[in-house]
């Protein structure tokens, strides 16, 4: 009887021990699972945050590069275009003024003379006004119709100088007036008395 009771106690003790082991094992396993989940979630959160930050950072960098990279050439390209357009408009304005002035009063000289008439000076004054506020240059072609080439060349040069001086007196810098004193090479007779003024190319 004593032996039976001892066996029963031993069995009970073993059962309790096994039960405790199983409980501890479950607890440890549960803790391990929870720890694993927490670690996994933390890792995903970090990766997600890093990914988001990285994506946003890349997107921001790309946007910055796009705005700075695309903006500079665009504005540079826009500045160049505006300057070109302004220059073209100024040239058209001067060309129109030249045509109008020469229609109203052609720049002509009397035979064997380099003297400008008052009408010619007025016409040159109108051209000079159109040349204010821009850097448009003009070409002045003068002639002289003598049979003697040297004499014609000398007179056409004096005529060019007279026109340049009149424009300079009206406020046009001398270096903005290109002269072509052709003598008798391009015009003969009465045609040699006329002067051509054009916007320089």
UniProtKB/TrEMBL annotation:
InterPro entries: OmpA-like, OmpA-like_sf
UniProt xrefs under Pfam families: OmpA
Domain spans labelled OmpA-like: 96-201
Record has Membrane as a keyword: yes
Keyword Membrane in annotation: yes
SUPFAM superfamilies the record matches: OmpA-like
Keyword tags: Membrane
Residue ranges of the region described as Disordered: 46-86, 176-201
Name under which the protein is recorded: Outer membrane protein OmpA-like peptidoglycan-associated protein
Biased composition (Low complexity): 46-77
Lineage: Bacteria, Bacillati, Actinomycetota, Actinomycetes, Pseudonocardiales
């Amino acid at each position: 009887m004593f032996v039976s009771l001892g066996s029963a106690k031993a069995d009970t003790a073993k059962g309790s021990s096994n039960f405790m082991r199983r409980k501890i094992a479950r607890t440890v396993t549960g803790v391990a699972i929870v720890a694993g989940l927490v670690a996994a979630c933390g890792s995903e959160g970090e990766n997600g945050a890093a990914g988001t930050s990285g994506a946003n950072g890349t997107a921001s960098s790309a946007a910055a590069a796009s705005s700075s990279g695309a903006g500079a050439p665009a504005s540079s390209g826009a500045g160049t275009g505006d300057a070109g357009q302004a220059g073209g408009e100024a040239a058209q304005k001067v060309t129109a003024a030249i045509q109008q002035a020469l229609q109203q009063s052609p720049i002509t000289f009397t035979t064997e003379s380099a003297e400008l008439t008052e009408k010619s000076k007025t016409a040159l004054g109108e051209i000079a006004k159109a040349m204010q506020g821009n850097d448009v240059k003009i070409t002045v072609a003068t002639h002289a119709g003598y049979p003697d080439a040297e004499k014609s060349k000398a007179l056409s040069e004096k005529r060019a100088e007279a026109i340049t001086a009149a424009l300079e007196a009206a406020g046009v810098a001398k270096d903005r007036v290109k002269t072509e004193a052709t003598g008798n090479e391009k015009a003969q007779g009465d045609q040699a008395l006329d002067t051509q003024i054009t916007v320089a190319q």
